[in-house]
Amino acid sequence: MSAAAAAKEVGGRLAAAEPLNATLHWSQALLDAEAARVDAAPAAGALGGMPVALKDNIVTVEQPTTCGSRILEGYTSPFTATAVGRLREAGAMIAAKTNMDEFAMGSSTEHSAFGRVRNPIDPERVPGGSSGGSAALVAAGVVPAALGSETGGSVRQPASFCGVVGMKPSYGRVSRYGLVAFGSSLDCISVFSRTVADAGRVLSVMTGHDPLDATTLDRPPMPVPTPLADLRGLRVGLPREYYPADLHPGVGAALQRTRAAIVELGGEVCEVSLPHSPYAVPTYYIVAPAEAAANLARYDGVRYGPRKVGPEGDIRALYQATRGEGFGAEVRRRILVGTYVLSAGYYDAYYRKAQRVRALIAEDFRQVFASGVDFLLTPTTPTPAFRAGEKTGDPVAMYLADIFVCAVSLAGLPAVSLPVGRSEGLPVGAQLIAPFFEDERLLAAAAAIERAVPAGAEVR
Amino acid sequence: MTWEAVIGLEVHVQLRTRTKMFCACRTTFGDPPNTNVCPVCLGLPGALPVPNAEAVRLGATAALALGCTIHHTSVFARKNYFYPDLPKGYQISQFDQPLATGGRVTFESAERGRVQAGITRLHLEEDAGKLVHDRFPGKTAVDLNRAGVPLAEIVSEPDLRSPAEARAYLTTLRQILIYAGASECSMEQGSLRVDANISIRRPGESRLGTKAEVKNLNSFANVERALEAERVRQIGLLEGGGRVAQVTLLFNAGTGQVKPLRSKEESHDYRYFPDPDLPPLVLDDAWISARRDALPELPEARRSRLEVALGIPAYDARVLTSEAPLADYFEAVVAAGVEPKTAANWVMSDVMTTFNETGGFPVAAGRLADLVGLVRTGTLSHQAAKRVYAEMAQSPDGDPAAVAERLGLVQVSDQGALAGWVDEVLAANPAEVARYKGGETKLMGFFVGQVMKRSKGKADPKGVQPVLAERLK
Questions:
Q1: β-strands B113-126, B100-109: how paired?
Q2: What is the CATH number of the domain that holds B458?
Q3: Residue B372 and residue B327 share a domain
Q4: What is the ipTM for the molecules in this complex?
Q5: CB–CB of B41/B4 below 8 Å?
Q6: Phi-psi bin for B241: left (phi > 0), alpha (psi -120 to 50), beta?
Q7: What local confidence, expressed as pLDDT, does residue B22 receive?
Q8: What is the share, in percent, of chain A residues with pLDDT greater than 70?
Q9: Which helix (H) or strand (E) holds B49?
Q10: Cβ contacts from A onto B, under 8 A
Q11: Per DSSP, which regions of B127-282 are E strands?
């Protein structure tokens, strides 16, 4: 099928999916233009016309980039993200920009200035977040793959809630140039797909050093992983801190079944400990807001975005009015927290201490992997997707939805969430974590587990 | 009772790179507003900084020229504050782990002789943009051409004891940085800026008084003036029974006064933290050694070499090494065979004048050596040679002998011609002749001068005197 024909089909599916509120910008004209480029290319490329949606915090020159925020309403970037350029070189079609929690701050995609995203499995439930729009489009079969961004689980958690694959690479493997910054030391462009193989194909073309991002690793791109036939000779650790007594029974049962599948594949399973993991969420909620407070300072109404002039008419009032009206409540909360933890007199007690704990969390992982464990298996989330509105009044409850994904982000490790069953019809995800830079091996093993576990089957 | 000033300076110099600190935009001065900008220095969403290796190299060169220790690991940090000329809402700087620490500048103090001032630290940072208040009536415009220009901030210890010493320190610091090739240090183009801290105390006291910071100093002379004004203000406060409050002051060059900034503008909590977009800057020993080996000869070393090896006076050596091109020219003239002190005299007078006027050396060193040779052999008088030099500076391709010929300046030692000029002079000055004959023999110099003048510099002075002596007998 030509890309032109595929683009018409994608357009049809995007239109049909409008009730999910998963997209912020797309047009048939732009899709057709992408298809024309693909069809005109001398070779199909590694992605051969694959339509890929982008979270709306990844910049492109063709469409606006709002980050789900009023403060960037009407903003179109004069440059395109490195990762998007690489996708296009590999023959991908950019299909749409997707809805998200404002500036990627949230776990339910209810904090978008442009309305909440619905979970295609159950529209009354959240798709997870912050990359909920991308997750929903893939889960609804609109596109085979979409980019999200992770700061503290924003792809793995919605992948789990929507029943799709969510792959977060090692920090520094994919260029952040053109990803609007939230927590720069944590941010990773990440991939949603329906299969592990597609996640590998998409990730592979995006990896590799970028001279425009000083934090990218100067190491070769990730080859497309070859799925493992079995897991013989591999040890999979189950960190006890990730299997609390009050774990949702459906989640527990799905993980139990995954563990059995690993053993059937010849893998060895053992219990391990990551003692500092309980501190991951509080540590994350110091480090990420601190970086965010600085990263979001540029939205001041001086150079771009809507400008509000305050009552006094001076520059201070302009800042206050622009930022006070432009940012939503959750973003304002995090800017305040981030400003507080960096303030004179509080820096040591919060930011410096959090950096120390972050190092301890990373050291936990290093030690477990050094002890002969190849991968770690955990639930991605403590529960399946919750109902819309259930946690919006309680920020801490919302933050705890990321309790199993934050530590990996703080340690910069690669991890993938796989759909491993359904509980009362709702998807359950399992998280497989690998040592730093072992993204390829992680996906190779995940493909074996994917084959062995019936993702759509109800667990009991 | 006397007072002693304690002064420390924070100097920002623009590193002499073609492009900005974290992007590829040009650093050219004076381009139309907002033409040297890109997503990185505009702070657009999604853009990221990448350090300019040349800026790091020049920063390290400056640090080594000041005798600093370069740290193997230094860290870029974000300095957070809101201002319309600061596109990201933070400035990328270095904070608790600067590029280099612990250097020194040795300079001549009028009061204390040779003084060594400590350098606390040198760190790298990016410049902010510029607010333009006079372009659009009632509005303020922002020009971001400067945003992201690479700077080194050089912080001195409070080792300076007078406003004049502050100026002498700055002059020497500037000289070193220009020699090292690290910065052009042009205050007019904003590539050197100074903030000064000053307190006063009784001589002999070791405790520091409360300091004030003076900003907006746009010339070395104004640094001295502003510090003097503040020194006098602080003495007045203390002698009047008051106390000095810690304050930031702006200097008004028009009135010569300092005036406090509104407190709102000075109380900042910059909330520094390591910039997560930039990995720590790691420089190994081999790299640092290479920078050290590549350092050119610095003014201090060159001064003593000229003094010792060429035997010229200390004063001459200092003047000649004030700027590297001047010293280069001087050494070229000496290499072309001119006796060093004679070369020094030429370079410090006529050559210096043209250099200050044109910024260059229109007369090649070899040509100047030829010219000096004509004086040595008696073909030209010194006075005539100066005229030949001036002519050569206008039309640089002239050979000195040919120019002297063309101007009719070749020295005349023919007895008849000399006697003619001498007789004319004696006839024109009968009173002086009478005084000379009455015993005022020191008038000989006057007569020689008059003969030189009458001959338009052509008379050979060595030949003139015997003729004069003969005629005045």
A1: antiparallel
A2: 1.10.10.410
A3: yes
A4: 0.96
A5: no
A6: left
A7: 98
A8: 100
A9: none
A10: 102
A11: 130-132, 141-143, 150-156, 192-201, 212-217, 247-252, 257-260, 273-274, 281-282
Residue B384: predicted pLDDT:
85
Q: Do B84 and A302 touch (CB under 8 A)?
A: yes
Question: Would you call B50 and A213 a contact, using CB atoms and an 8 Å cutoff?
Answer: yes
Question: Structural domain of residue B342, as residue ranges?
Answer: 299-406
Q: Rounded to the nearest 5°, which phi and psi values hold at A58?
A: -115, 120
pLDDT of amino acid B1? 66
Amino acid identity at B127? D
Q: Do B46 and A180 touch (CB under 8 A)?
A: yes
* Cα dihedral B89, A409, B279, A342 in deg (nearest 10): 40
Residue type, A232: R
Contacts of B390 (CB under 8 A, 6+ apart): B350
> Does the pLDDT value for residue A83 go beyond 70?
yes
Active site residue A193: no
Give B295's contacts (C-beta < 8 A, 6+ positions apart).
B61, B64, B65, B180
Q: Do B279 and A215 touch (CB under 8 A)?
A: yes
Spatial contact of A72 and A65, defined as CB atoms under 8 Å apart: yes
Domain count, chain B: 3
Q: Looking at residues A15-41, what average pLDDT do you find?
A: 97
Measure B79 CA to nearest chain A CA, in Å. 9
Residue B238's CB: how many other CB atoms inside 10 A?
17
B279/B183 same-domain check: yes
What does the block give as tokens for B260? 């406090």
- DSSP string spanning B7-42? EEEEEEEEB--SB-SSSS-B--TTPPTT-S--HHHH
Please, what's the b/e burial string for A393-402 (b: 16 or more CB within 10 A of its CB; e: otherwise)? eebeebbbbb
Rounded to the nearest angstrom, the minimum Cα separation between B287 and chain A is: 20
- A353 flagged as catalytic: no
Tokens of A418: 């796989």
Query: Domain boundary residue among B243, B270, B290?
Result: B290
Range of the domain at A73: 3-206
State the catalytic residue, choosing from A55, A97, A168, A391: A55
The angle at the Cα of A253, spanning A250 to A256, to the nearest 5 degrees, equals: 150
pLDDT value of position B262: 65
Q: Which residues of A touch B51 (CB under 8 A)?
A: 214
Annotation marks residue A27 as catalytic: no
| Stretches in chain B below the pLDDT threshold 50 | 264-266
> pLDDT tens across B345-382, in order?
999 999 999 999 988 999 999 999 999 998 888 788 88
Domain assignment present for A140? yes
B422 and B349, same domain (yes or no): no
| CA distance, residue B114 to nearest chain A CA (Å) | 41
**Catalytic choice (A107, A108, A131, A154):** A154
- Residues A294 and A283: their CA atoms lie apart, in Å, by 17
Put simply, the answer to whether A77 touches B43 (Cβ < 8 Å) is no
> Does A214 contact B48 at a Cβ distance shorter than 8 Å?
yes
B429 and B374 inside one domain: no
CA distances from B328 to A160, B196, B350, B394 (A): 72, 33, 16, 21
Q: Please check whether residue A297 lies inside any domain of the structure.
A: no
Average pLDDT over residues A423-439: 98
Count of structural domains within chain A: 1
What are the pLDDT digits (tens) for A404-426? 999 999 999 999 999 999 999 99
Alpha carbon B51 to its chain's center? 29
Which residues contact residue B342 at a Cβ distance below 8 angstroms, ignoring those fewer than 6 apart? B372
Domain of A16, CATH number, reads: 3.90.1300.10
Q: Are A52 and A96 in contact (CB under 8 A)?
A: no
Neighboring chain A residues of B90 at a CB cutoff of 8 Å: 294, 297
Min Cα separation B98/chain A (Å): 18
Question: Which residue has tokens 């991968």?
Answer: A375
- Model confidence over A349-388: pLDDT tens digits? 999 999 999 999 999 999 999 999 999 999 999 999 999 9
Alpha helices (runs of H) in A276-405, residue ranges in sequence order: 280-295, 315-326, 329-341, 353-370, 395-399
